[in-house]
Amino acid sequence: MKMLLCFITAGVLATTGSAQTATNVFASAKGEAEYASPSALGYKMDADSVDYGDIKGSPFWKNEGGPAIVFLQDGRPVKAEKVRLNFYTNDLYYKCGSGPELVAKTGTVKQVIFLKSSDSVTVVANFQSFRDARSVYNPNEAPFCQVLNDGPVKLLKLVSVNLDKKFDFVEGRMQSVFFSRVEYYLLKHDMVFAVKKFSKDDVLAYVVPDTDTDSWLAAHKNKLKSESEVIAFLAYYNKGK
């Protein structure tokens, strides 16, 4: 399954144990950043058709949002003070200064690098739009996947949010509710492979083990059965690539 690979910076997530600054992100690209105007993100006119106040739960990654560097399809960076990702509509919400919160036009965004709110410099999360990692909830979109590690082989996390109705026994009525589904993919040589479940057999089917893999897994008591275990293994594996 050949993928349309988006522009990738060398940003390493803070969750992998080696936080990186926004300055380092651009050092691996074109040097000093020249930010495009936020207007380049465009504005989706029909974005407010859903009244989230009547729905239980939230479709957003980090509901409060935070500062981020947003890369456009042509590679230009845009810096916004508040950015939110909506996993229900696969939209990017953004706000600059005292202006209103807007929704970026569909198809304008390749990558979103969230920064730490307290210093707006440290990278805390990296999301990229992948056309070959498609959720059953977004069949016609290029969903935003969180890139959980750096290196030749990457683990991608896709959260798909759907809307359902359930009976609320407390209020005695039907209630609209957001619910989510998590899917994982491995990105290797510009190819995206779905990981059905975390296990040694499933992960090593796409990450060809080397002669020391079994001994490393045994020494670290790593059974490749969780997100954190796969990230730790890929940190080891990618060092030799």
Structure write-up:
- The protein is built from 4 helices and 11 strands.
- With 241 residues, the protein is mainly beta.
- The protein folds into 2 domains: 14-195, no CATH class; 198-241, no CATH class.
- Strands 1, 2, 3, 4, 5, 6, 7, 8, 9, 10 and 11 form an 11-stranded mixed sheet that branches.
- The radius of gyration is 19 Å and the shape is globular.
Low-confidence runs: 1-19, 27-32
Order of helices and strands: HEEEEEEEEEEEHHH
Count the domains: 2
Strand content range: 35-45%
Largest sheet: 11 strands, mixed
Rough outline: globular
What share of the residues lie within helices? 10-25%
Gyration radius over CA: 19 Å
- The DSSP helix count reads 4
If you average the pLDDT, what whole number results? 82
Structural class: mainly beta
How many individual β-strands? 11
The termini sit apart by 22 Å
Can you summarize this structure?
The protein is mainly beta and 241 residues long. Helices cover 13% and strands 36% of the residues.
